[in-house]
Amino acid sequence: MPETQPKIAAIDPVWSRIVEEAEAAIIEEPLLGGLVHSTILHHGSLERALTYRMAMKLSSPEMSGQLLREIAEEAYASDETLGEAARADIVAVYDRDPACLRYIQPLLFFKGFQAIQSYRVAHWLWRTGRHDLAYFLQMRISEQFGLDVHPAARIGRGIMIDHAHSIVIGETAVVGDNVSMLHSVTLGGTGKEEEDRHPKIGNGVLIGAGAKVLGNIKVGDCSRVAAGSVVLQDVPPCKTVAGVPARIVGEAGCSQPSLSMDHNFPSHG
User: Fold this and answer.
1) Could you tell me how far CA 139 lies from the centroid of its own chain?
2) Where are the alpha helices (DSSP H) in the chain?
3) Which end of the chain has fewer surrounding CB within 10 Å, N or C?
4) Dmax over Cα atoms in the chain, in whole Å?
5) Coiled coil: which residue ranges (predicted)?
6) What CATH topology corresponds to 153-268?
7) 21-39: pLDDT as tens digits
């Protein structure tokens, strides 16, 4: 281990840090030793750990953990960007969520992170034409994690979903890189049309708790959607919108609102 660990750290610093934290966690809390060993220390890579975690969380009498693990392993082996996105998501959660003090926490405990990694496998299935299996994963993700994300939706990397209750992301929605959103966010449609009908969220956007963004509209890069807002029209880049229906109430307040996680905006008058 002493000879190989520096090489692992140089090649994959995220996984190396997760392993180090896992070893320390067992010393601090021996009762979690079984979970930490089975989820992290028994595996040689983050991808393998993710496939195991996903299988354990989503397995049911309808589909065994072994089958789910084989599906996920095939996805990670076929598309290396899945693992790259997972690493970016872990770093995003650690950087933006003050409750996240270690890299192992999203992997072991945070359902927003676990749900998005499971969605990424479902999206891979969708892209490869295995739609029914993708729908099955969507169903299990919704049942287990409380997030309903259509497998056809396109979601970038560096995603942080805090608390993650009642997130809904529709079929034709697009979410850019480095987006942060809180619980009860909906990226939905406004009618029964079957074409492109869901929002397009730019890079670096911050979406507050309970916000609803509806229809085939654009939310520009580095903008903010205030908590509880209902957005029905395009939002320019670097602006803050609030209200029902949402209106522009000011600038975004900083260059990267999704990183600062600042939901405050100046009052008028």
Assistant:
1) 17
2) 5-11, 13-28, 33-36, 46-58, 65-78, 81-96, 104-108, 111-127, 131-145, 257-260
3) C
4) 64
5) none
6) UDP N-Acetylglucosamine Acyltransferase; domain 1 (2.160.10)
7) 999 999 999 999 999 999 9
